[in-house]
Amino acid sequence: MDIPYGMIAIVAVAVLVLYFLLRTYNNLVRMRANLRTAWSDIDVQLTRRHDLIPNLVETVKGYMGHERQTFEAITEARAQAVSRAGADIATRAVAEMALGGAVGNLLAVAERYPTLKASQNFTLLQEQLTSTENRIAFARQHYNETVRQFNTSIAEFPRNLVAGTFGFLPQPMFAADAVDRAMAQVKI
Amino acid sequence: MLISARMSTPQTASAQAFTVRDPETFFKAQKRNRRATWRMSALSMFAAFLMGIPLTLVLTPLLYAVTLFIADVINYFSPLPLEFWQNANNLARLGVRVADYFINQRGTLDPQELAIGLALILVPGMALALLLWAGIALLFRHGGVGGTLASLNAREPNQADLKELQLADVVQEMAIAAGLPAPKVMLVDSSGANAAAIGTSPQDARIVLSRRLLDDLDRDQLQALLASLVASIGNGDLRIAFNVTSVFEAGGMIITLINAPFGRRSRSTLWRVIRYALRRAPADQRSADADEVAELLADTLDVDSTDIDRFFNQQNPGFLKKILRLLLFPFMFTNIAVEITLWFFLNVMLGPCMALLWRTRRYLADAGAVELTRNPDALAGALQRLSQDATTIEGGEWASHLFVVSPNGDSTLRGANPSDDQKRKALAAWKATEDLGGTASPAQATATPAQVATDEYLQMRKQIIAAAVAAATGDAQAMVRVQAFAQSMGADPALGMHGIPNLSDLLLAQRGNRAAIARLRLLRRGRQTESRPSRRGRTGLQTKSFISFHPPLNKRAKRLQKMGAHMIAPIRRYGLGATIFATIMWLIFAPMLAVVGVAMLALIAMMIGLNLLFLTLWLTVIHWAFGQDWVANFNGFMKFANDVAKFVSDVMATANKTSR
Known about the structure:
The complex is a heterodimer of chains A (188) and B (660).
Chain A: H1 5-61, H2 68-83, H3 89-110, H4 114-118, H5 120-155, H6 159-166, H7 176-185
Chain B: H1 23-77, H2 82-104, H3 111-141, H4 147-151, H5 162-178, E1 184-188, E2 195-198, E3 206-210, H6 211-216, H7 219-234, H8 237-259, H9 264-278, H10 283-299, H11 307-313, H12 319-373, H13 376-386, H14 420-432, H15 454-472, H16 476-489, H17 503-510, H18 514-524, H19 553-562, H20 576-626, H21 630-659
Parallel strand pairs in B: 1-3
Antiparallel strand pairs in B: 2-3
Helix pairs in contact in B: 1-3, 1-8, 1-12, 1-20, 2-20, 3-8, 5-7, 7-12, 7-13, 8-9, 8-10, 8-12, 9-10, 12-20, 13-19, 15-16, 15-17, 15-18, 17-18, 20-21
């Protein structure tokens, strides 16, 4: 019986190609899912900040009764940020930046009140807010790294063939300059 | 705020002068990590496989005997084909034919037949070893490694305490940065400062650290250290550690099984393992149990008086024992061979290999930490600070390789002398606290600003130590002064270098902690505080390898420097003379070590050879007892026995001749 080497070779090559296709597709799908998780992580941290701020305002109101302007500014900024929770990245980014600024402002003003600084509640709350800022920054960092990994992946040959066929598009990074540009258009 | 770099709490000042290195190299490092995980798992499996070869000596004769017995029984009812008996016969004679071929240059050897025969002989042992390893891995999966640590009065962080709240926050931040589920954090109240990641996978990982660590490091340094742990979790180090320890445990299990028919200790160990497998206990208790059983199994690997030895060395045995001894004598030889082989394989070959591979994981975890925090200075500072501290945590000996810094202490990073800048800073800070009472500080040298007079510096050191001891014994004013000084120096990791006692030591001593008071007294007498562990246990994965699982701190610091860290204290460099001396020593000793290694391998090969001979003897005896053609077999057997006797006597004669 003649062993059909040609046939075997063709079948083997076909199997290999199929395997490669499957693996690449699955990897890309996984990476895209990671991307979405990373994005929602940022969302989670932003919401956390929204929730912490009323607590902060209540804590410091007792000590800093006269700083009405600061309180109004931060409450307003928070309301703005919450109202834009469903909007696109540019509008959200602007509002969140404003909120971050207002928080920083409030904390800076609080520095002038030694009784407040000595309060245990305030130090704990301050730590929580610092941590929230850090978490937002780290979530952004993680998202950007995931995006970079994804974009590089779908650009490499031969993966870009699979990516192109199945519609994996490069994603934008949560870059600072995008926010800057948006900021420049809006007066704060 | 979204754009800015991370904020720190007002108390800490962190220099963020980090030039971003190519982020792609970090990603590539991560990819390499994942492949290395696969490699180390494969290595562990291969090791488990190899462990089966010595096991063959015990298992194959048993299987052969059973097969022949069953074949005999079947043959009684319906005769088996002739080929079966021929094959069985050939298998038994295989060893003889190999010996004939190589020693007497007689007969032929078919490579295919040899391969099949070898496979048939070796497969049962290897299969069993692999099964044992898989079984042990399954058994200990839920216990994980380091379970004892977690059950050691470990508590959750108290969210009402600022430091512990910072700890909880920092872990969350690092988990977010790494994209991992946040590991559970447990605090242990111990006098050592260290942290470890335990568990078997990123999903059930836990971080255990001592309260002392929180007091010693500031927020950024704590973040960097925990980033290193989180990075190692993300790199899959937990799985690797688990696989490595399970190989050693499987080895111990093999020896326990072999010894079990002979002695009580092995039987009790076996019983404990079974009991652990069947018992239902809460998770933490289970993991503590797992550690105990694991230690027990690994202990059996140490070659000392085992049950078999005792069985055979017992004086004045009874008559029954004498008969048993005679019958089981081959077993003793076999078992000793198995034990020595396993010991050599695990402690001399596998252990050091694993240690070196583990060091690589540590370096990569450090790189991961820098990637996560973008702040190599923090990690460098943390390492330098920890090099001054005692780092042993009681109860964590078995998991010593999981700690972020070696629990046995590491003095490679303790700087020889503080730099001039540091001296000046310290003098200025001490002078500033003058108004808080106590002796007047020495005047600063004004003549040569570039050179700080050593006299003033030494004087200051004496004053600081005196004030610290006074503070420890209850002088409140001195305490205030020392605290103010420590505060103004910041969390300068060089604090320890000035001979200044650890602030937490002072606090502990005030509360009456004996160990802290002892350390302060040592400091007062001018000696460096030694970070020796209180008891050097026989246990611990570290004892399985003479090479440390932890890379030396100065090497880690150097790598951090390459990543952009600014070390506050200069890393001690070895002079040219020392390097030359070390090289010469290595050139002398390395060949010697190689010779010793080869000799040991030759010894083991000889023992295995002798045992294969025994094995063939056994097989032939069994075949003679159960096989078909009794007369021919008997003749063959006698001839074989004669051959063996002649061979042995030849060897003895040559040995005698050469020894004379």
